[in-house]
Amino acid sequence: MRQMIRTMMVFLALFVLLSSCGGKQSEEGKPIAKVNDFIIAEDSFRRELAASAYFHNIPGLSNEDKKSFLDNQIRKELLIQEATKLGLERAEEFRQTIERYWEQTLISTLLEQKSIDLEKGIIVTREEIESRYRALAQVKPDLAPLEELAPEIEKEIREQKKTKALESWIDNLWAEAEIEIYEDNLRSLR
Question: Does the reported pTM lie above 0.90?
């Protein structure tokens, strides 16, 4: 069943990739550029441009910045179209890469979501902060005052509790699952 879901997700990812190369008029605003039959639409271009400006810490985009970004988008689209024309999206290596990316993204999203959920129930007491401070002070006598370090110590304790809760949750998933390991097959694997 899991393999079937993976296969379906890979085909879905390929469909999205291929459909992005189609020539349909986008419902994302007026066209910014056309690359063969593919339209680069205003709304999607704006989102990607904003994300790039944020990522690269560009404080104010000039027309030259926008043109440079558009040139890169056009290059990217040309390469996608060429790869598609050569059938590279159907190659096993590509499929496996998409599958690995999908799995990693799915797991990362799950862990992030669960981490947020678990954090809501975590309590750090003043006693825990003071105890941690005393332990640190024994190792480092010239430590800054407790009140100055309390937020950092609280954050550290919270993260440790969150990590422990996440590990416990994963252990619980393992305990509740039906897992069978075929030791003979594992040993004979060469």
Answer: no
